Amino acid sequence: MALEVRPEQCVVAVDGPSGSGKSTVSRRLATAIDGVYLDTGAMYRAVTWAVLESGADLTDPEAIAKVALETELRIGTDPQAPSFAANGTNVDVPIRGPEVTGAVSAVAAVPAVRKFLVEQQRAIIAAHPRIIVEGRDIASVVAPDADLKVYLTASAAARAARRSAEDATDVAATEADLARRDKLDSSRAADPLRQASDAIEVDTTGMGIDEVVAHLQRLLDSRVSK
Question: Where are the alpha helices (DSSP H) in the chain?
């Protein structure tokens, strides 16, 4: 059931680690409120794809930043069919592959890359009256004035099982990779993964997608209807 969201401008920030259900939940919620959807993690992945294509050294922040700042991104915000292009090439498939997955944390840790993409993310948010934005630093950095801030989490085992089912990978290997990414994302100097002080934590371990979406709908309705 769709919400009657008020006021017309409505921004929802959804943060959390990989496998917590951010993407599916955010897309469903965007559809429910007749809004658009922005996957900021995919923006970092698209830039990572461009960095890998360029052959830049992943241990050289200046080289990474140079490629990133020269990369032209095109972002599709339809929650039913989000799309991403880098320098005119559709990258929907390759940005989900193991090569990009293995390198994205290193690229996302470069401060100049984060600054470049946060500016683009804020511009996209400003251009849409109703938007669900997912990532790792939305509530704390990108949209600190969001109408609703949610931090989705789940047990390590649940997250690994979900991601393994999506990618058809070994559960143990997936859990190890998620732990690696969590450590990198949480310990980076620039905009680390963390729960904003005013974000509502939602543990999705024992919840189905429909339950989570319904819960967020109720939270949003209570925030914007006052």
Answer: 22-32, 40-54, 61-69, 98-108, 111-126, 156-167, 171-187, 209-224
